[in-house]
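Sequence in, structure out. Go.
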Amino acid sequence: MKVLISWLGKTDIDNMQADKLASIATLATKHTVVFDQIIILANTWDEHWLRYEEWLNKRLAILGRPARAEIVRQSLISPTDYSAVAAIMQRNLSTLSQSQSQLYINLTSGTPTMAAVSVLLGKGIYQCQLLQTGPDNTIEEVRIPFDFDATYAKVARTNIKAKVVAGPSFGGAFKDLVANSAPMQQVIFKAQKLAATDLPALLLGETGTGKEVLANAIHAASARSDKPMKVVNCGAIPENLVDSILFGHVKGAFTGADRQYAGLFEQADGGTLFLDEVGELPPSVQVKLLRALQHGEITRVGDSKTRTVDVRILAATHRPITQMVADGSFREDLYFRLAVGVIELPALRERRADIPELVQQILAEINTTFARQPGFEGKTISTHAIKFAESYDWAGNIRALWNTLNRSVLWAENQEITAEQLQQACLPVAFSTSPESKVPDLVAGFDVHQYIDGIKEKLVYAALEKANGNLSKAAKMLGLANHQTLSNWMEKLKIKPDS
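Output:
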C-alpha cells in the first residue's frame, strides 16, 4: 500500500479556488506512483477543507486513480513550533508504518519547520521517500546527499559517550551525592545511565531518602538541563486543585479562576517535571497524566483545546506502589508508563558507610545558614557523635539526620557537638523496624487510622511547643516537606495553630 502524507499549504488552497494544481494535487494526480491513500494534515483554513477534498477527489476519480484524499485535523498552536510539529509527525508516521505501507512525504506544502521535521523523521526513522514540486509543478524525488542513518547514529553514539563517560555536566550533577556505600554506588550508576536517556522514571524509597535530590541530579545531567525542572508534591496540594496545578485552567473555569493559568506541564515544556508522592494522585488525575505521557498532550481545566507539550516525567513515592496497583488504587497502565526506569534508594540504615560524610556535609550547610546570625560560631562534631550517628536507625533517613543536626547546632553551647547532645536532639519517638517493636493489642474493633492519628497528634503538639508555634520550624522537626503539609495534618486532626 502506497501512502502520500503532506501538510496542507496556503498555495494548495489558493490554487484550488482557481481550479489550478499546486503541490499536493500535482503529486496526487501526476506522479508515476499511483497512491492508494492520501493523508493531508491541517490545523487551519478549515472552512475550505470540505471543498478541497471534493475538488481533489473528483480529479482523482476522473483519472481513475484509486486514492481518496482525506484532510485530518491536527492540534497545533504554532506551525513553527518544532516540538509540536515533531510530535504530530511522529504520531502519524508511527501509526502508518505499523501497516507496513510504503510512505511518501511531500516537503513543498507547509512551513519550513514542517519540511525540516519531515526530513529528520522520514529519513532518520521511518524510511520514507521524500518528494517535492517546483514552481512549474515539476515533480522531484528528494535525495539526501549523505548516509543519514549512519551519520545520525554516529553523532548519537558520540553524544551518549560524552554524557556517560566524560561529560563535565555529568560529574557536576552527581559529584555532591555521597556514595561511599555499595548500595548508593549502584544507585548512582543507574542514575547516570538513566540521565543519558529521555525515559520516564520512578524513584522509590522511604521518606527522607533523597528522591528529590536524585531527581535534580538526573535532570542536571540530562540533555534537558538547560530547560526548566518543575517540582510538585502531589500529596501536599488539595485534591480539587491537583488538576488545575498540573494542567492549568482557563479564565472562568471555576470560582476564583480570574485569569488563565499555564499548569506545571506547560511550565516544564522542554524540561523535566518531578512528581513527588505520585501515589497520592486521585484516579481522575491519573487518567489525564497517562494521556500526557502517551501522547504528549494536555488540556487545561475548562478548555476544549488540546495543547502539545514535551516533558520528561520523573516520579517518586514512598508508598508500596505495586501493592497499590494490585488493590486498584493506582492505575496499572500508568505504573508501567512511569516505571520504565526504576531506582530504589536505600534507607540510611542500609548505607551506614555514607553517614560520616553525610554528617560533615550537612553540618557544613547548617553552619553556613547559621553564620548569618550575629555572634554565631561554627560547630564541629566529635568522633563519638559520628559513631552514634552511624549506629542509630534513622526512621526519617537523611531528612531526620538533617533535622537532628539542626537541633544540635541550635541548642549547643560549646563549639563541638558531643554524642550525648546529638542523642538528646533525636526525637523522643523512634519507629523501629525490629520485630520486637511494641504494637497495640489487635482486638475486635481496633481502628488503625485512629491509632496513627493519635501518634501524629502527640508529635504535632510536641513539635509546635518546641518551635514556639512556628509552623515552618515545626514542619522541619517532624521531617515534613513544608509547612503546608503540617497545616493539612493539623486541619485533619482539628488542631488549631494557637492551641
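Check: The chain has a mean pLDDT of 85. DSSP finds 21 helices and 15 strands in the chain.
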